[in-house]
What does this fold into?
Amino acid sequence: MNQTLVIIKPDGVERGLVGEILGRLERKGLRFVAAELRTLDSDTAAQHYAEHVGREYYENLVRFITSGPVMVVVVEGPPDTWQVVRTMMGTTNPLESAPGTIRGDLATVMAHNLIHGSDSAESARREIGIFFPQLVS
Ligand code: ATP
Ligand code: MG
It folds into this structure.
């Protein structure tokens, strides 16, 4: 799998960081196959975050991701591009993310950590299918 799904979350769009974040991915050498600015409905958000159902933060997570426009992007590169993007994102909690990573450099709040990236080849395939079904066969 050499494609992965990236979402610049509502905080990233609101803060005007779409260019900064996507620019980092471009400068790394990754390419964009599809991109769309859209506001997610709760069904799409629930499908995307299905693995988190039942967690104490789940409702906040869905409320936040549907709270404003997000930039949804299919990113392509070498095999396991999902892993390249995850490394560039940094850990989930931005307070612990290494400097040089997107979250480490640009965020401080767990719930507002700017970017989503698929966490496996399997997730990448599933998530691209949710947002850009025409790209998966
Ligand atoms: P993402 O899926 O958004 O790329 P991630 O894979 O680093 O982030 P996940 O474990 O999949 O992290 O959690 C999804 C999102 O849910 C996180 O980005 C974070 O905003 C939120 N989240 C996860 N764990 C917690 C928690 N313990 N408290 C509050 N929010 C959380
Ligand atoms: Mg995740």
In short: The chain is about 40% helix and 20% strand.
